[in-house]
Design a protein that fits this description.
By secondary structure, this protein is α/β, with parallel strands linked by helices.
Length: 112
């Protein structure tokens, strides 16, 4: 879901976007996310940033690291809006706690 939202925002004219996703592209992602078979195994954030730069000229700050309670202040420091796309029904306990951390961090608008 995050890749699709990021692509929609970039195509709508948003030009300061940051993507944080530690996941790699899997075969099962190809039917629902804007990736290609040749992308399988690569980091989602990096490929998404590269694809959108080539297609639209939008520079996206991509982090292929996990967002954690320990690094959220640093990673989200300059964010006006945070969009949390962690899938709740498959989220680990740590990821569920991270959602609480993101909510606590967000003194600005938060979209869930």
């Amino acid at each position: 879901m995050g890749a699709n939202i990021t692509e929609s925002l970039a195509r709508s004219g948003f030009c300061q976007l940051t993507v944080i996703d530690r996941d790699r592209i899997e075969e099962r992602n190809l039917s629902t996310q804007p990736y290609y078979r040749s992308d399988v195994g690569a980091f989602k954030a990096k490929i998404l940033a590269n694809n959108l730069y080539r297609a639209l000229g939008v520079k996206i700050e991509a982090h292929s690291k996990e967002l954690t309670s320990a690094n959220s202040d640093r990673r989200l420091a300059n964010s006006a809006t945070v969009i949390d796309t962690i899938v709740r029904f498959v989220a680990t306990k740590e990821q569920q706690n991270l959602t609480c951390t993101i909510k606590d961090f967000a003194v600005r608008p938060l979209i869930l």
